């Protein structure tokens, strides 16, 4: 039987750079993980494609999926639902591939409870001033909302003890290297996983 893949969860406070780091990981031709495309009820932004960036669904459709137990986790974030399709994760892990989730902290907490042997990585800002500049720099929020975001970020940072590793996102490329190194180290911890990794290096 094939050894199951590793479930890798990248989370962290809003505005820390989760989406940016995830895109950098998957824009590399040698990306070793499978990205789980999330479902959301938020409207597509310009250039976003259904089935590539997200599976865009109506609230009714999303609530039906919740009822049917089709989501590994879900959360409501700034007025929209976001969730991880369960079947894709299970089926991909069963083929021995590592699955990568980039999700906000409430969802990550649910995954920690359901998949305790996953690899949980918390992305940290270098400091709170820098986090605030990134939220402001993104230009999507009003002054009032930025204050709320900063308060929420402090509460989100308190949840970091639920994670296996903390990665500082001072520079995107460095954060990507750290994440890749952590996954490699995790594979080396178990002998069976190490033999799987050797097979991967051999291209089998
Ligand atoms: N719980 C959960 N959060 C998700 C999922 N997919 C994306 N997110 C998070 O939802 C938040 C909002 O994402 P998005 O609307 O793309 O806006 P962004 O703030 O520009 O990244 C980000 O923190 C994502 O990490 C998911 O499947 N589940
Ligand atoms: N290492 C970094 N240094 C400087 N700016 C960054 C870095 N990582 C992300 N950013 C910027 O911070 C803002 C928030 O990033 P984003 O990926 O949307 O965060 P999140 O997905 O965690 O909410 C974006 O404008 C992005 O370009």
Automatic annotation (TrEMBL):
GO cellular component: cytosol
PROSITE patterns in alphabetical order: GUANYLATE_KINASE_1, GUANYLATE_KINASE_2
Alphabetical UniProt keywords: ATP-binding, Cytoplasm, Kinase, Nucleotide-binding, Transferase
GO molecular function: ATP binding; GMP kinase activity
InterPro entries: GK/Ca_channel_bsu, Guanylate_kin-like_dom, Guanylate_kinase, Guanylate_kinase_CS, P-loop_NTPase
EC primary class: transferase
Residue stretches making up the Guanylate kinase-like domain: 5-184
Domain of life: Bacteria
Binding site for ATP: 12-19
Catalytic reaction list: GMP + ATP = GDP + ADP
Enzyme Commission number(s) of this protein: 2.7.4.8
Localization per Swiss-Prot or TrEMBL: Cytoplasm
Family of the protein in this entry: Belongs to the guanylate kinase family.
PANTHER family: GUANYLATE KINASE (PTHR23117:SF13), GUANYLATE KINASE-RELATED (PTHR23117)
Role description: Essential for recycling GMP and indirectly, cGMP.
Name of this chain's protein: Guanylate kinase
């Amino acid at each position: 039987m094939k050894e199951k893949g590793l479930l890798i969860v990248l989370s962290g406070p809003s505005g820390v750079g989760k989406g940016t780091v995830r895109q950098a990981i998957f824009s590399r031709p040698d990306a070793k993980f499978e990205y789980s495309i999330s479902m959301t009820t938020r409207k597509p932004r310009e250039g976003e494609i259904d089935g590539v960036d997200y599976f865009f669904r109506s609230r009714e459709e999303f609530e039906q999926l919740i009822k049917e137990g089709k989501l590994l986790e879900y959360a409501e974030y700034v007025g929209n639902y976001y969730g991880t399709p369960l079947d894709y994760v299970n089926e991909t892990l069963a083929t021995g591939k590592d699955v990568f989730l980039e999700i906000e902290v409430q969802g990550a907490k649910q995954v920690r409870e359901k998949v305790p042997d996953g690899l949980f990585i918390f992305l940290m800002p270098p400091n709170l001033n820098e986090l605030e500049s990134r939220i402001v720099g993104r230009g999507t929020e009003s002054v009032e909302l930025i204050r709320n975001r900063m308060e929420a970020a402090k509460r989100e940072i308190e949840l970091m003890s639920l994670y296996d590793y903390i990665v500082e996102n001072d520079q995107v490329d460095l954060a990507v290297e750290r994440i890749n190194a952590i996954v490699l180290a995790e594979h080396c911890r178990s002998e069976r996983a190490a033999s799987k990794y050797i097979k991967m290096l051999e291209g089998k």
